[in-house]
Amino acid sequence: MPTFNQRQIIETIEMIKIHHLDIRTTTLSLSLRDCCSSSCDKTAQKIYDKIIKYSSKLVNYAQEIENEYDIPIVNKRIALTPISLIGESCDDVDYVKLATVIDKAGQEVGVDFIGGFSALVDKGFTKGDLKFFEQIPEALAFTNKLCSSVNLGTSKAGVNMDAVLKTADVIKKTAELTKNFDSIGAAKFVCFCNAVTDNPFMAGAFCGINEAECALNIGVSGPGVVSSAIEELDKKADFGEVSNLIKKMAFKITSAGELIGRRMANKLGVPFGIIDLSLAPTPARGDSVAEIFKAMGLQDAGAHGTTMALAMLNDAVKKGGIMASGYVGGLSGAFIPVSEDAGMIDAAKRGVLTIDKLEAMTSVCSVGLDMIAIPGDTPNSTIAGIIADEMAIGMINKKTTAVRIIPVIGKSEGESAEFGGLLGSAPIMKVNPASSEIFVNRGGRVPAPLHSLNN
Question: CA-to-CA distance for 45 and 52, rounded, in angstroms?
Fold first, then answer.
């Protein structure tokens, strides 16, 4: 266990009350590889029993540590082995049944979300994967805590465009099934290129097949701390000074986060996995990545220069985190979810921040197009085109990218969708009207780039 500087920990704790520093999530990663069975009922029971066995004290212990250190732990979550892999061993698999059982277990142990209703299809489909895709919309529509993800491409395999098309259909159908609640079901679904197996954040958290039986992963966030520190710098401070300050803040946040994470793992009696230092915002004022851009000197998120500001921020956060801990993992960097960031919401409403600019920013951020609401009548082929562009950025740049987009059924550009809680609210953003239909319907697999041949 690393040696923590007590003065730095105390200083970090002082950031909590004013600048919204928190432990964004403690996520219990749980392998279900031993739950496979030829019977769907038996598999469901094994999954339920294992979740209850390992997770029954997760929430209580998190509350105890909150009180002990006076640091808020906002979300308690579970990440499971991709359910498509577990379910396809069943002769009579019903993925909706498995989803319902997982959701029930999540409610009983009191977690906020449970992820891993996932599939890895970057190189193609199995018969089980195809059945799984068909049942995602219904599973998300009739559960409360369940989150779903699919991996559509990698830098080694290329991008499965057949899966991209099916994913667009999944998003649209899920939105339709939850249209009475501003299509919130689509907010619980994300598609990836180069998905990370130890990510503690939803909706994309799952326990990779190469992960341990059980581990405690932690996600820390503090955009308000970073923006406040930059605001105190001289306006003429150069970018080297700004970067060094961000690194120092990231170091302190990571040190505090790992202390909490290890205490939590010890109480649960499981290994400590990783700490994901991602500047994940919330709708609360002062807890915004967009405010960091303003502190750096940009008038708004989306102004020319925003991509450079985000690139520097992402890099400095990672450098500071890696100096504080040998177990930095997950996504680590800066998230740019529109609905979850008050500054992003404001900029999007005024048209300063567009989907095109967000796409450019995803080339340097931690993830991708996140929590973006679009008109409900957006064609499936256009959604597939948006996904394809984002997968290309991830594939070519050897980085994780993702799309979590919500076609809000019954609403148009300029209106707003309300999701509540950490998911916040989102203005319905303009989508390019030009058609992608012939292009995306070519299907097949986009070959991996030349740099994939690096053995």
Answer: 11
Domains, the chain: 30-193 (3.20.70.20), 218-446 (no CATH)
CA distance linking residue 276 with residue 315, whole number of Å = 14
Q: What is the mean pLDDT of the chain?
A: 89
**Alpha carbon distance, N-terminus to C-terminus of the chain:** 34
Torsion, CA 368, CA 167, CA 103, CA 109, rounded to 10: -20
Which one-letter DSSP state was computed for residue 442?
T
Please report, for residues 285, 417, 445, the alpha-carbon distance to residue 436 in angstroms, rounded to integers and kept in the order given.
38, 26, 17
CB 408 within 8 Å of CB 375: yes
For residues 334 and 328, give the distance between their C-alpha atoms in angstroms, rounded to a whole number.
Answer: 14
pTM of the model: 0.91
Distance CA 121, CA 132 (A): 11
Q: Which long-range contacts (CB under 8 A, 24 or more apart) does 409-414 make?
A: 409/175, 409/176, 409/179, 409/183, 409/376, 410/179, 410/376, 411/182, 411/373, 411/375, 411/376, 412/375, 412/376, 412/377, 413/375
Q: Is 18 exposed, middle or buried (0-12, 13-18, 19+ CB in 10 A)?
A: exposed
Is the pLDDT at 125 greater than 90? The verdict is yes
Could you write out the DSSP letters of every residue in 343-377?
HHHHHHHTTSS-HHHHHHHTTTSSS-EEEEEEETT
Asked whether residue 280 carries a pLDDT value surpassing 80, the answer given is: no
What is the Cα–Cα distance from 72 to 16, expressed in whole angstroms?
A: 8
Question: Which of 208, 187, 191 lies closest to 199 in space, CA to CA?
Answer: 208
Contact 225, 15 (CB under 8 A): yes
| Other beta carbons less than 10 A from residue 45's beta carbon | 14
What lies within 8 Å, CB to CB, of 210 at 6+ separation is 197
